[in-house]
Each structure stands twice: as structure tokens, then as C-alpha cells.
């Protein structure tokens, strides 16, 4: 009986303590700065870096597209060659 009474008090007091602590804490204000501000003169040019990155990505895409195009063309030529070879062998057998 004593244990159930203590358990009820703990179940009631723990959330109550949390609520009291939350109410007494000072809220964080949004206007407080989280760190130091770097002056604009010493910051890297983000637009320039983004442009360079996009240029490199575009070059890589062009290179990949060219490789895929030449590979597709090679495969198509191989298929046509096989088809012609099959036709020639079938004609010579008949």
C-alpha cells in the first residue's frame, strides 16, 4: 500500500516538476545572433562558385551524353550487321 501511494506521488510530481522548470526557464530570443558575422568583402563569391560548379556539371553531362550516343550508335551498327549476316547466311542456305 505504501508503494502504490509513493508511486502515485511520483507519477504526479515528475510531470509537475517538468512543467515548473519549463515555466521558469527564460525563452530564447530570435534576435540573438548564433555566431559571428563574416563581412561581405571576405566571403567567397557564392554565385561564382555555383556558376563554376554548374559549368563543370554541364560539361560532364555533355560528355556522358556523347558517350551514350556513340555507344548506342555502335550497338545499332552491330545489330544491323548481325541482321545482314543472318540474311546472307539464310539466303545462301536456300
From TrEMBL:
A GO CC term assigned to this protein in UniProt: extracellular region
Domain of life of the source: Eukaryota
Annotated compartments: Secreted
Keyword Signal part of the UniProt annotation: yes
Signal sequence interval, chain numbering: 1-30
Key words, A-Z: RNA-binding, Secreted, Signal
GO terms assigned for molecular function: RNA binding
Family to which the UniProt record says this protein belongs: Belongs to the NICOL family.
Protein name (Swiss-Prot/TrEMBL): NELL2-interacting cell ontogeny regulator 1
Organism taxonomic ancestry: Eukaryota, Metazoa, Chordata, Craniata, Vertebrata
Amino acid at each position: 500500500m505504501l508503494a502504490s501511494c509513493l508511486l502515485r506521488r511520483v507519477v504526479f510530481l515528475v510531470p509537475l516538476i517538468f512543467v515548473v522548470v519549463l515555466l521558469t526557464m527564460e525563452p530564447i530570443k530570435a534576435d540573438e545572433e548564433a555566431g559571428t558575422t563574416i563581412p561581405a568583402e571576405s566571403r567567397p563569391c557564392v554565385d561564382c562558385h555555383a556558376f563554376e560548379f554548374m559549368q563543370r556539371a554541364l560539361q560532364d553531362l555533355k560528355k556522358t551524353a556523347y558517350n551514350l550516343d556513340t555507344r548506342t550508335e555502335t550497338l545499332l551498327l552491330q545489330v544491323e550487321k548481325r541482321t545482314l549476316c543472318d540474311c546472307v547466311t539464310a539466303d545462301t542456305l536456300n
